[in-house]
Design goal:
The protein contains eleven helices and eleven strands. The strands form three sheets. The protein has a seven-stranded parallel sheet with strand order 3-4-5-6-7-8-10, with helices on both faces. The protein is of the alpha/beta class and about 300 residues long. The N and C termini lie close together (about 10 Å). The chain has a single domain, classed as Aldolase class I (TIM Barrel, Alpha-Beta Barrel).
Amino acid sequence: MTALCSKFMQNRYTDLNTYLRGLFGCRVQKITIDAGLGCPNRDGTLSRAGCIYCNQKGSGTGAAAQGKSITQQAEQAKHALIRRYKAKKFIAYFQSYTNTYAPTHRLKELYDEALAVEGMVGLFAGTRPDCVNDENLDLLASYQDQYLVWVEYGLQSVHDATLSRINRGHDFAAFENAVEGARKRGIHVCAHVILGLPGESEKHMIQTAKTLSAMDINGVKIHLLYVVKNTVLHQWYDQGRYTCLTQNEYVNLTCAFLTHLRDDIIISRLTGDPHPEELIAPAWAINKTQTLNQIRNTLEQQNLYQGMHA
C-alpha cells in the first residue's frame, strides 16, 4: 500500500473527502456550478442527439437558465454546506455540460468569478476529452499557484465500440490525448466511468478499470447507468432493448472495479445521484445511502480493497 493510500484510504478505498481534509486540514465541500455552457454533442457540432442517457437538461442544475449568476450559485450553496457539514473551505466544481466549451476569455471570466467567492480553495472543471486544447488547459494550469486544480473528463468506457454505441462522439484516443495534455501541465485528472452500459459485460468494465489504472490519472468517478425520462435510453428501455443492473449486480461490479484500480487513485464517487422526478429506472438508484452502505459492507465482508489486483 502506498503512502498516499495509507494517508487517505478509508473504508477500503481512497475517498475524496479524506483526501481533501488531508490537504487542507478541515472539511472541504465541492460547490456545483452551472455556467450555462453547451455541448458539441447537442448543438450540432457533433450531433443534436447527445449521449443516449442524457436529456436536454444534461447534468445541469438549471441554475444558469434561472438567471442565477456564478456568485449567487456559489454563495447559496456555501451557506447550505456550512450548515449541513460544517464545511470550512470549498471547491468550485463546474459540472453542468462541457465546461471548457467556450472561448478562453469567457472561461476565465467564469472561473475568476467562482474563485472570488470567499473560502474557495480549488477549481474542478468537468468537460469532454475532445473539448480541451492548449489554450484552455493553459488557463486551468494558471490557477495552480493558488488553487487545487482538477479537470474531470467524461470517458464512460475505454472501449470504442461502447463509445460509438452510446453516441459519445469521441473515441478513447481523445481521452488519452486529453490526459497527456493536462498531466504535462501538472493538472490533476479525474476520469468519469459508467457501469452497466449497453453491450458491456463484467469483463469489459474490469478492462476499463485496468486500463485507467495503468494511466497517469489521479481520480475516478464511478456512475450507475440509470434511465432518465426523454432520452434514447428511455426509448430502449421501453422497447426492452436495455435492462438495468440490479442493486446487487452494481454493488459487486463496483467492488470488483475498485480492486483493479491503483490504491493512490482518488475515488470521487461510487454511484449516481438521479433526480427523482426524472428517473425511470432502476427504482433502487434513489437509495444512494443504501447502495453506498452495501458497497462498504461487501468490501469488508469479502476482504476486498482498492488496488488489491492492480
